């Protein structure tokens, strides 16, 4: 695994006016040294981390040598959302999770980029929670990003997202086995009934003690429990409902007029969490005053398709990262 680097932030003022005395910002750099190549910033999702490429890299299908995001051509930087626990240091976990918002995380990430003397980002990309942070980062610094690529996400938390965040929060704070139980519920948001039914076909395990779907869900819960801290889960889940780039600002259309980036909205047609209809509406609102493109992954798998349908995602992303040889297109 690439070395985990750290930036120390002191006396950071949160959106709610409170001050966080110390925030360690951990990150990893892949590909070319900083300053030698265009920068791609990758934001991780709820249970993700900065290890996007190489050993155990969660986006190895997209990022690496001669991959779509080619580490022979780009400098790839991935920050860890503070408090996600990837550094393995318990004292860096965040207990006052309700004090933090996506806007705070976006500002923290910009502090990190400025510390690294990065003033221009070729592409800012993220899926789910990471994509929501990317929207916020773009509004904060609308002239510093060339390509915004939010995937399976939205610029706002809908009532549906807020409702499910509440259910997750209740499970995390009241269950006797909170991480596992919350994960079971979440997995049914990230997939679709069609995906589940086609995969398991009501079959039982080899010893006929339970259905395969039950075994699959419990294994997901156990795996997350073994690698994720409860406080991290509470924080990441809470951040989702704080997603709103218009909060205490102008309207969405007014904010969008300041964005200089090409905006590539990537949705999943079967996403039950960040539904495609919302992304299509965003596209139609923006298409007259921005360089905005809409792409749609066709999949039975729902929200998690951005981690499954790599061939489609590569087809969407390659024209963005290889502009000299391919033209940007719109998938509708």
From TrEMBL:
**What are the record keywords, sorted?**
Hydrolase, Transferase
InterPro entries linked: AB_hydrolase_1, AB_hydrolase_fold, HAT_MetX-like
Q: A Gene Ontology biological process annotation? A: methionine biosynthetic process
Question: Which sites are catalytic?
Answer: 128, 271, 303
Question: Is Amino-acid biosynthesis one of the keywords?
Answer: no
Task: Give start and end of each AB hydrolase-1 domain.
Answer: 38-159
- Mind listing the GO molecular function terms for this protein? homoserine O-acetyltransferase activity; hydrolase activity
Stored PANTHER family: HOMOSERINE O-ACETYLTRANSFERASE (PTHR32268)
User: Which protein are we looking at?
Assistant: Alpha/beta fold hydrolase
User: What organism is this sequence from?
Assistant: Flavobacterium capsici
């Amino acid at each position: 695994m690439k070395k985990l680097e750290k930036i120390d932030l002191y006396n950071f003022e949160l959106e709610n006016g409170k001050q966080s005395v110390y925030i360690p910002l951990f990150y990893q750099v892949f590909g070319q040294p900083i300053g030698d190549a265009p920068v791609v910033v990758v934001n991780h999702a709820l249970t993700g981390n900065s290890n996007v490429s190489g050993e155990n890299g969660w986006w190895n299908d997209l990022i690496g040598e001669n991959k779509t995001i080619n580490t022979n051509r780009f400098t790839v930087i991935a920050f860890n959302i503070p408090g996600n626990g990837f550094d393995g240091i318990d004292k860096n976990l965040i207990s006052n999770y309700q004090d933090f918002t996506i806007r705070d995380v976006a500002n923290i990430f910009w502090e990190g980029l400025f510390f690294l003397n990065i003033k221009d980002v070729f592409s800012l990309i993220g899926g789910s929670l990471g994509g929501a942070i990317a929207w916020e980062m773009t509004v904060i610094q609308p002239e510093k990003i060339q390509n915004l690529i939010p995937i399976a996400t939205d610029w706002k938390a809908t009532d549906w997202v807020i409702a499910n965040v509440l259910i997750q929060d209740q499970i995390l704070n009241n269950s006797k086995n909170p991480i596992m139980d919350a994960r079971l519920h979440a997995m049914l948001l990230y997939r679709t009934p069609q995906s589940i039914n086609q995969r398991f076909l009501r079959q039982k395990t080899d010893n006929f003690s339970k259905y395969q779907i039950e075994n699959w869900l419990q294994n997901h819960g156990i795996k997350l429990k073994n690698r994720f801290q409860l406080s991290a889960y509470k924080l990441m889940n809470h951040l989702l409902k704080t997603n709103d780039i218009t909060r205490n600002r102008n309207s969405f259309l007014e904010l969008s007029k300041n964005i200089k980036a090409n905006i590539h909205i990537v949705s999943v047609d079967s996403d039950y969490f960040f539904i495609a209809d919302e992304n299509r509406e965003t596209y139609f609102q923006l298409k007259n005053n921005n360089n905005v493109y809409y792409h749609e992954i066709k999949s039975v798998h729902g929200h998690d398709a951005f981690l499954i349908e790599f061939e489609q995602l590569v087809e969407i992303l390659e024209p963005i990262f290889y502009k000299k040889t391919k033209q940007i297109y719109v998938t509708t």
